[in-house]
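ingest -> validate -> predict -> emit
validate: passed (alphabet ok, no gaps, 509 aa)
predict: started
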Amino acid sequence: MPLTAGPLVGALDAGTTSVRFILFDTRGRIVAKAQREHEQVFPRPGWVEHDAQEIWRNALLTMRDSCAGIAPKRVAAVGITNQRETTVVWERSTGRPIHNALVWQDTRTDVLAAKLAADGAKEGGRDRFRARTGLPLASYFSGLKLRWLLDHVRGARRRAERGELMFGTIDCWLSWNLTGGVQGGRHVTDVTNASRTQLMNLKTLAWDDALLDAFAVPAAMLPDIVPSSAVIGALGGSDVALEGVPLAGILGDQQAALFGQACFAPGEAKNTYGTGSFVLMNTGAKPMRSRAGLVTTLAYKLGDEPPAYALEGSIAVTGALVQWLRDNLGLIEQSADVEALARTVEDNGDVFIVPAFSGLYAPWWDAGARGVIAGLTRYANRGHIARAALEAAAYQTCDVLDAMARDSNLPIRELRCDGAMAANDLLMQFQADILDRPTVRPRMIETTALGAAYAAGLAVGVWPSTAALAENWAVDRRWQPRMPAKRRRALLRSWRRAVERSFGWVGEG
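emit:
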């Protein structure tokens, strides 16, 4: 790619399946990028792990590959964005993890979540900590994953209490290593990632002693909480490219996408269609408690400015359903083939797929739900299954946005879309139809990495304000709803009947 004039800003994007490093210019255009996948480890059904050392090695390699031929002085700052709830515990003295990282998708703490909910039945059950954290008790969040590691790795709790172990989400693990590791690396996480641990108080933006007691987590192992956009330290240490460049931004991946989509005003919302999908809506300067099955989270905090909050709906399976059609059923050879197959039919043939492979997340939060294919007749064919798989992403997004509208009373005028599935024109049109709102795909769909770069660049003055970032945002394509209201209502009724059939498939006993 041709090298543009002016400063560059780097983004280290540590996702669920790969690590990428991307360099952006001041107009938010990609100048260079590199990507490496990491192994997905499945020790048991429902358990998902990563090798944190492999993620760190891939971070070094992608940074080296992207920056080949580029003078370090051209790079003004680097930001990090990451899979948020994935949990790492490592030795302070050696930097070695004591166990594989527990991935956000991992469900081994379901039983522990249920026990804590039962113990706090008089305090709200699964919502007993929602007023402090914005989150229900669920295996999704990293506090319970940390508790599991302390309880199941031999000697871990004793060592943590002595201050020998460090905890962090992937951003924390990478920032510590990037700024020196055992030689004095910064042990920090930003407010967006901290808000996903269920250990931080949403209002004080600090670790909460009552929560640490409830989760049995020693305070000595926790990182410092910093703003999303602020100079954290200089890159340095063995094999780190761009030595001396400021690390100046950290955002959890979905908040980074919100930031990269320039959703800076209350009511502005985005959906990132990846393995799962994540709908976030900026709600402004005060946390807004959800009564419709969403979570309240930090959107971002810029330096010393007050924080911005968001409502979020996490959907466990969207792109992963297309992968399932490819890998498990053999209906397509590549994920990108699903659109062509879905276009072989005019509609879904009354087939609905509820992809509750590991339960349903927002707004239902039913860990016992399991996948359902409803409405099958002899008429249904491969095209109908493909179309139902795409439509499942749109229906689940619609459920979340309906909940956001009920919670916030804010008008949602359009949905900004990014992620791999946003390239699917059939899905984007159906999303607009079933929402009855426009869907918009930006010209730059690498919004997660872009958001991390923007946060870092703001901290060092590459961009003067969020207004300047908003000027970079540009539309690639906009889809207007065109489905008749009667048809929309009928489809939503059928979808919700299918969802009800998925509930409670796996009982408590």
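The first strand starts at residue 8 and ends at 14.
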